[in-house]
Design goal:
Chains A, B, C, D: It is an enzyme of class 4 (lyase). Chains A, B, C, D: Belongs to the chorismate synthase family. Chains A, B, C, D: This reaction introduces a second double bond into the aromatic ring system. The structure is a homotetramer. With about 375 residues, chain A is of the alpha+beta class. In chain A, about 25% of the residues lie in helices and about 20% in strands. Chain A starts with a strand and ends in a 10-residue tail after the last helix. Chains B and C meet through strand 2, strand 3, strand 7 and helix 2 of B and strand 2, strand 3, strand 7 and helix 2 of C. Strand 11 of chain A pairs antiparallel with strand 11 of chain B, so a sheet runs across the interface.
Chain lengths: ~375, ~375, ~375, ~375
């Protein structure tokens, strides 16, 4: 349980270090018969790839996905899907000076405390590159969700103090700016803010918002594996995320019940909620509304500005981190949030299939046949 | 996987409905030799018990814990600890009128969607009474944590707009007011606010904060089972919680790296952080600082004020919920947050024991003996 | 992970000691809508109850099942089903002399080694009474399996050297003799054999065979969670079981491929095997044939005949175990084998529902409706 | 849960098909600091490699292990160890004729039933090549076990009717003959027997026995995760295994209690058993004796002799399987049994570390330091 496996039925195991020879993921439990090719995965990897704009690192990784198993003649076979991404552009000597010192905001100190030593090159397993395996696996989960009409859209809600207000989203803009913001004007404002951060050898935090449409009601498991709880774990497990909220989230702490409750209504064909303060869950189960949640992302800890820290033998030093680092983590984490949400959801959808006896018996005694399976 | 089991090594399985004959928990994997009696559990249950003040329901449950297994001559034996709490004061007829209608903000609709029908009495399994099993199990986890010097303190940070500022905590006040606020004056202000809510047949949300001291560095598992992620799942799985943040949380989204990074220093005996914006974790592992997190709790959905909703056959109605309901969930959820944090932490501490080979070999070849185990 | 939980989707957690106040089980993940009452469980418990004939202990437990949760108006709700069985007839002073000595063939020594001490009364958690929770949970699993036409039949194949040959089974006899043998004459012979064991203050081993009909083909998961592997774990986890074999089992080690392979044929409506050397699985998945396996059960370790052993402080002694002990474990373990097979199978049937994309999509977009779920 | 992950703390996920581009394993949860190189793994892979003698297939795979992550400067880092083995010598056209027919004794039919179609090349995921990942991971587990003095020795007990009697083992012979038998004369006899099988276009079953020395007492978890149960699952999950027994196994079903019980004695330094009918476990926990178990392996199902079967569209045919197939599975499965036993045991040893409070507190408050961790 070094913690690199996620999920119960739809599972992913990721592996790999920043400066090892490769990173990858093994997806197990994906249903057979899903159309899948390397390009389906590559499209997601390209969204988190470095070197795409002025706010992402100059490290020039192609991050090319290769599928090694689990797909035959273009379709998944039901067996584990192993995906590998080779590391090409490691410059490990960059990190030699960091070998014995604990970078503020990084996991250097805690990994040493836990394991006694660490692969210090590029942060090793605690590097942002660890998310490559998540994104590759999330791409498979997204394909599965699409097959039942579920669409996940994540985007940059805010960078530092620059936040797109709820009513001013233009989703067509998300892929039109390097910050993945749903607004042209706010993305320009945020760009200017980031330029000033760079100028000051500093970095910025921000907020990622995610909307999921098409989730049928009833998904999630009561008590410990609520849909909200599963999403919270999935999203909080992304390195830089420091907070997760669903629906009105922390605003609901300020609200009154009469405002926060969503009234039910019957629209002639189905029962739905008039408002969506809950963000799409009630009692930990999806309620048929759009699922909406937000993740708070801390500023990139690697900054050029000198910082105080200590070496592993306790010597106090001033540290300036040079090299290739984004001034903000948010844009590249957008697709990671989508991936984690997809993984959590795919798993809960599969688990949900056996919730009712009538579904269980209908499965093993299909209606359209007099015979039982098989 | 109806989701009622939590944990990997230190596990809890809870069971029971609001108006069934009993509720309970089975704690499995607790180490042998822990001193434990029913009173250790009762103290925690008493903190979540209704009927203790003007802001908690008049339902008069004693909620008495009985230990049925796993303890022999005052100590845990290493086998499952079964704890049962009988329901005494159910008034099920209160709920007959609610049988076929979907209360706003409750799980009535989603449970029906998932399971086809539900035990509608008092919310059944989705009732707040479900947390009794969590608190009973959490009490055992707290005993275990105490044995290695870990202390968990949760309290009410805010109720509606009334919030105790960071610098004005008086921890001695927490147990002195029915709202578990660390401030006498703010608790009085919050009481007045809640009185106005009651007068308006309304309810209020709030924020619970939790501080944990004494966690050694290195606890948590990288990637999917980070300490932050485990806590986020554990706390978000509490019915009314809509957001979780650790350390500076959502404030870190507004910050710059130079502010948000915590500098390391060496105090002569050990390496520590000068500040604690991270809230006690780095890279998902505890960093030796105080762990601090907050949970946003939504307002009680059951309010006396008429609300619009529909019946299960789609008829639009106005619903006024009478009966015994707190105007705020927060104070009674404080101990539930402690319980969930304790369960998450106990599990990760046990998992951590095999992280290093030197600990593994020292365990099976103890230093103080020439012989190997046993 | 003290190991008292079994299963992935259909799970059971058992608890309780031989001389504690109660034993029980929590079944989680059972689909909603299954008709279930206490008598459904009681019928199974009665089959393992002591005091029913001359070859079972005189301890007179009623072993009455009480359902505390998860059932509403006669049907399961999808939430955990807590079942409790009170202990009534403990005579703990019987065991005071055994407190500090290690009975041969029992877990006294190993529990002390693992946990440092033990609840020595009646073997504590390692008593055969531990299986009560399994049988109660297994009864629920059997109800679920019946709903899709799966029937489990276990019986005593042999007691010591007295074995019913394969061709001479009369299943109507199983419930007609206290040994649960599918043959009147062999059960009489076995009874005589057991009488001689008792006369010699000794005990006997035996073999339980189990046949399961109605399993659709394709159940089980490749690699580590094969149907055979799941059954092997489930059955080998019963205290006295020392061997498990499926189909021809150890005989297939003597066979040639030309004998051991089962030819496929098409009978006009479906493909089936002409023979069943494999015992109903191929590649770890059910093959549509009757599943058949056997479990070797060791002799009751508690015998009146004096045995050599040591005390916990290393003193060599001669021990005669008096009290209430069966001369053979097999008959009472027959229903435990059924229970464990049912638990393993119910879980794998639920897991199997998401194996194919076409089933996944048909579930979320039901054919008979134009709408997607819900 | 397609079932390709095994273990709780020390886990392995395997992936890969017979004729895909590669196979591999991800080992997660291995303690940091274990000395590990590719050659440590290669030694185990070489023992299961084909093409090594007249009784193994002529397929000439090098099966070279490459470690892609989790090892830094010769030691494990505590992060997942990804091991990849490229397939080189696939001749897929061999299998084109088998595409639409169900080979007797193989998983063709059941995979089609479960998944709707299959990667038919070389048996796909159900091929014996699937065990490569297990052996690679098992090699890591063996390294870990060696570090605490545990040694696993598996060997061929019998091939068809040729069986090495218990008293006549010569362990130095195991690596001296291609059948891994602990006897020169019996291996010669078995070779002659296999030659006659080949001549008759047939194959043979056999028995693998495994002895494990150095396991401390108390390993295993009571109830469902007994050491015996874990081993039974692990070993029965190997494709061709049809039975597992521990200690006297099926012979104990014939025995009397007075024979089967192992007397305890005190040898001046520690308590031990005089005999070992139990095979090294009592109550599911290791008892300090040598652990000994056996696995029954069925004959190779692929035989050249014509067999009756059907095509996927129900046509009856006679099938002769040519190509590269061993006349016996046993010798190459010996190392797979070792690997699975090592994986099961490594996991249970890690889980066992938190069984006692005194160990838990000693870990977090080390004796040799006044300070608590860290």
């Amino acid at each position: 349980m070094a913690g690199s496996t996620y999920g119960t039925l739809f599972t992913v195991t990721t592996w790999g270090e920043s400066h090892g020879s490769a990173l990858g993921a093994v997806v197990d439990g994906c249903p057979s018969g899903l159309s899948l090719c390397e390009n389906d995965i590559q499209k997601y990897l390209d969204r988190r790839r470095p070197g795409q704009g002025k706010f992402t690192t100059a490290r020039r990784e192609k991050d090319t996905a290769e599928i090694l198993s689990g797909v035959f003649e273009g379709r998944t076979t039901g067996t584990p899907i192993s995906i590998i991404i080779r590391n090409n552009d490691q410059i490990s000597r960059d990190y030699d000076t960091l070998k014995n010192c604990f970078r503020p905001g990084h996991a250097d100190f805690t990994f040493d405390q836990k394991y006694g030593f660490r692969d210090y090159r590029g942060g090793g397993r605690s590097s942002g590159r660890e998310t490559i395996g998540r994104v590759a696996a999330g791409a498979v989960a997204c394909r599965l969700l699409e097959s039942v009409g579920i669409r996940i859209t994540a985007y940059t809600k805010s960078i530092g103090p620059i936040s797109v207000p709820d009513g001013e989203y233009d989703f067509t803009q998300i892929s039109e700016n390097p910050l993945y913001m749903p607004s042209r004007s706010f993305s320009e404002e945020a760009s200017a803010y980031l330029e000033s951060c760079i100028k000051n050898q500093d970095s910025s935090g921000g907020i990622i918002e995610c909307q999921i449409e098409g989730i049928p009601a009833g998904i999630g498991e009561p008590v410990f594996h609520k849909l909200d709880a599963a999403l919270a774990q999935a999203v909080m497990s992304i390195g830089a995320v420091k907070g997760v909220e669903i629906g009105d989230g922390f605003r609901s702490a300020l609200a009154k019940g009469s405002d926060n409750n969503d009234a039910f209504t019957f629209d002639g064909s189905r029962i739905r909620k008039r408002t969506n303060h809950s963000g799409g869950t009630l009692g930990g189960l999806s309620d048929g509304s759009t699922l909406i949640f937000r993740a708070a992302v801390k500023p990139t800890p690697s900054i050029a500005r000198p910082q105080h820290t200590v070496t592993s033998d306790g010597k106090e030093i001033e540290l300036s981190i040079h090299g290739r680092h984004d001034p903000v983590i948010v844009p590249r984490a957008v697709v990671v949030v989508e991936a984690m949400a997809a993984l959590a959801l795919a798993d809960l959808l599969m688990i949900n299939m056996s919730s009712r006896l009538e579904n269980f018996t209908a499965f093993y005694y299909p209606k359209d046949s007099k015979e039982r399976r098989p």
